[in-house]
Amino acid sequence: MNITHPEMIAISDAIESATGTRFHNYAPASLKRRMERYLSMKHQTVAGALKMLSQSLSFAEDMIEEITVNVTEMFRDPEFFKQLQGLVFPVLAKHQAVSIWHAGCSTGEEVFSTAILLKEHGLLENTTLLGTDLNKGVVLKAQQALYASRQLNTHLDAYFLAGGRGNLLDYFTEENGTHHLKAEIKSSCAFVHSPILRTPEHKKFDLIMCRNTLIYFDLSMQDAVMKILHRNLNLGGFLCLGEKETLRFTALSFKFKEIDPINKIYQKVD
């Protein structure tokens, strides 16, 4: 399967017509590769896919779920979470109430990881966490907060390396091989199906996580996203990007102070 650029645009247009979700500003090479993989997996031609997209909302939503990047896990990049606790949590501890936005949250593991660490620092009670993602399917999974035992066991080492102070399994109840996140963590976390360029219906945030998301956008989209993140961040608030992402050389770089150049933690100063 090898789709042309005009075919990729046609598919993107059809997805937008069916769901309102735009892919025109995604990195073309990555988007093309994922579209081709999806069509091959479904044994569909471009013409067949365009017909299905015009007739079936479920096909469009399924295609979105497959072509968006949903790689996540609990305590991914443990050193980042270790530095988050050492550099950011002490500042958040001075606030009477804390609000956190995870933009591009996928299935919610990063949100829950942050919430667990906040709990261990005595900060969760006064904190609300919001996760948003354009993929409706992964948002539904995040809302369920269910994990197979084998899946959860893979996160134990990362939790320890991230500076976890207890036993990760204590935050879950187990039933028939499925672990349910306890209400004390889950109740502080809300998930909404929303594109990243849509401003959350929330007051400004004290911490915004947008890790490993910008790399999938072209430069114009990255710039638009950065403006949204900056506008929705309180003065003195923190922005966290992925290891391959940076604020350097962007139009907004002077509005942030670099707190940790390795783990990509920034503080808004203007």
Word description of this protein:
With 270 residues, the chain is α/β, with parallel strands linked by helices. It has two domains: 5-67; 78-268, 3-Layer(aba) Sandwich (Rossmann fold), CATH 3.40.50. Helix content is 42%, strand content 20%. The chain contains eleven helices and ten strands. The protein has helices at residues 5-19, 28-41, 46-55, 57-67, 78-92, 109-120, 136-144, 149-153, 156-161, 183-186, 219-231; strands at residues 98-103, 127-133, 146-148, 172-175, 178-181, 189-193, 205-210, 233-241, 256-260, 265-268. Strands 6-2-1-7-8-10-9 form a seven-stranded mixed beta sheet. A three-stranded antiparallel beta sheet has the order 3-5-4. Helix 1 packs parallel to helix 3 (46-55) and helix 1 packs across helix 4. It is globular and about 55 Å long.
**CATH homologous superfamily label of the largest domain:** Vaccinia Virus protein VP39
Q: What is the CATH class of the largest domain?
A: Alpha Beta
Distance between the termini: 48 Å
Kindly state the percentage of residues in helix.
40-55%
Residue-averaged pLDDT: 90
Radius of gyration: 19 Å
Tell me the number of strands.
10
Tally of helical segments = 11
- Tell me, briefly, the overall form: globular
Number of domain units:
2
Please summarize the sheet with the most strands. 7 strands, mixed
What would you call the structural class? Answer: alpha/beta
Q: Tell me the strand order in the biggest sheet.
A: 6-2-1-7-8-10-9
Strand proportion: 15-25%
The ordered H/E elements are HHHHHEHEHEHHEEHEEHEEE
In short:
With 270 residues, this protein is an alpha/beta fold. Helices cover 42% and strands 20% of the residues.
